[in-house]
Amino acid sequence: EEEKRLSYEEKLEICDHTVAQKLLQIALEKKSNLIVSADVTTTKELLELAEKVGPHIVALKTHIDILLDFDADQTILPLKDLAQKYNFLIMEDRKFADIGNTQELQFAYGTYKISNWADLVTAQVIAGYESLDCFRNVGVVAIIGMSSHGNLTDQNYRDEATKIALSHPNVFGGVSQNKIPNELLLFTPGVNLAHTGDGKGQQYNTPEHAFTKLESDFIIVGRGIYKADDAEQSALTYKIAGWNAYEASL
Ligand code: 5IU
């Protein structure tokens, strides 16, 4: 691909989705392209992590259904307060993967009522263009390629997924381990400075790989931060590594 690597300022000019604009503005304000994946199982751990890493991140990525003690008042209200206090967005990594009608129910009903609080959500595009129509009041990050060993997101799948992501107005970004077109913001998980894998199929790369090779916009880091002895210090390390790698990639 011959496309020029764009800066966050240049992306602000071409990405018109409100959520894309917010993420890019926060990135520039904080000099951060870090998203922390809060894969913890209690509300206490979630809020403590958000308090520690909040100043350094553009978004906190949740898997709300792994919490043992989810409660809208005890979990979401304080999380929203922290998001406002530290200026980050909340990204629910739900990876919706069903027909539109079912996704609509999973999005707005049930225990979690994701539509009430998430700023952005992840969704598979495997069910087709119209399956994404229901995500009206959030931004959607489409799953284009996965980081795990042996995944089925081959080049053909990624090309077709990219076409849907580019054409759907609710979608402003994609998760992938490969380049995607400049009109979409690229989110790259599978980033760790200390490990190359987790023994369960996860494959890790460095921030340099994400920004220079993939021309990514945001790195997503889970265990590298929340399992560290000092999560705040680790978030700062990844934030600086991510920002330096971004600047070097321009
Ligand atoms: N995640 C991946 N790879 C992917 C997709 C999502 O790791 O291809 I799509 C999620 C899973 C987890 C986080 O919530 O990103 C990565 O966590 P670790 O940094 O702890 O591996």
TrEMBL record:
What is an annotated GO biological process for this record, any one? 'de novo' pyrimidine nucleobase biosynthetic process
User: What top-tier enzyme class does this entry carry?
Assistant: transferase
Name the UniProt key words of this record, in alphabetical order: Decarboxylase, Glycosyltransferase, Lyase, Magnesium, Multifunctional enzyme, Pyrimidine biosynthesis, Transferase
Is the Transferase keyword given for this protein? Answer: yes
Which pathway is this protein assigned to? Pyrimidine metabolism; UMP biosynthesis via de novo pathway; UMP from orotate: step 1/2; Pyrimidine metabolism; UMP biosynthesis via de novo pathway; UMP from orotate: step 2/2
The positions annotated for binding substrate are 39, 61, 147, 202, 222-223
What are its cofactors?
A: Mg(2+)
This protein's assembly is summarised as: Homodimer.
Q: Which family does it belong to?
A: In the N-terminal section; belongs to the purine/pyrimidine phosphoribosyltransferase family. Belongs to the purine/pyrimidine phosphoribosyltransferase family. PyrE subfamily.
Protein name stated in the entry = Orotate phosphoribosyltransferase
Q: Which part of the entire protein is covered?
A: 203 to 452 of 452
